[in-house]
Write a structure and sequence with these properties.
Layout lengths: L4 E2 L5 E2 L2 H10 L3 E5 L3 H9 L4 E4 L3 H4 L11 H14 L4 E5 L9 H15 L3 E3 L5 H13 L3 E6 L5 H4 L9 H17 L3 E5 L3 H10 L3 E5 L7 E4 L1 H4 L17 H17 L11
Parallel strand pairs: 3-4, 3-10, 4-5, 5-6, 6-7, 7-8, 8-9, 9-10
Antiparallel strand pairs: 1-2
Helix pairs in contact: 2-4, 4-5, 5-6, 8-9
Length: 276
Amino acid sequence: MSLAIQDDKNKKKITTLSIKEMKRIGRKIVCLTAYDAMMGRVFSEADVDLILVGDSLGNVFQGLETTLSVTLKQIIYHTKAVVRGSDHPLIVADMPFMTYQVTANEALTNAGQIMKETGCSAVKVEGSSPVVIEAIRKMTETGIPVLGHLGLTPQSINQFGSYRARGTNQDEAERIFHDAHLLQEAGAFAVVLEKIPAELGKRISESLSISTIGIGAGPYCDGQILVWTDMLGLTTDFNPRFVRHYLNLNELILNAVKSYGDDVRSNNFPNKSESY
């Protein structure tokens, strides 16, 4: 079975079916967040499989402490930009806080608006409350693919009271395991597992037929996701255990801007070849 279809640029177009097939054949799923066309283009060229336009844009772009005030309009704006910059990755848009938790019908309406206005391929929701499960069922029955999210769910930070790991005791671990199966039964094509013990991530991944995407959930998940500013070292005040820095982008940018400033102040920029 083919993992994907070919687009005009001869790159494989990743679909929700591709994500499920990757689990079947044991191919790890590469995922990152993005919030603009530029990074969407870079991640496409780097063959990232799934790009999440996360409500983490509240932290990354807006400088907020939580994701709770991110709006539907803002998610739509950023998702449209990412879609314009990307070609083959599966683009998933986060549904903001209180756009899907009130009623399943309201969730369906909001998800439909995201899909119609942005051109993305799926939406993501957090949690497993009865309303969320019913919303997933309604959305998938209507043709809107849904990515679930369990474990540490940032939109519930006020209820949790901290960003500590979840599922570290048996009762909570069993509840997360059970909820993962509820999401699968409701029709989710995959589930993000955030900040849970590696063995729990393994147990869930081995028991589900849908894919698991880990972030701080150990190496046994079917794929991994990180916030791109964390992975590339642009974030300096957030260093959780599960983030690996592949570049110190903050230092590189800082040094480049300082060099630019020195050249401007010394009248070394622009030089003759850089002038008209």
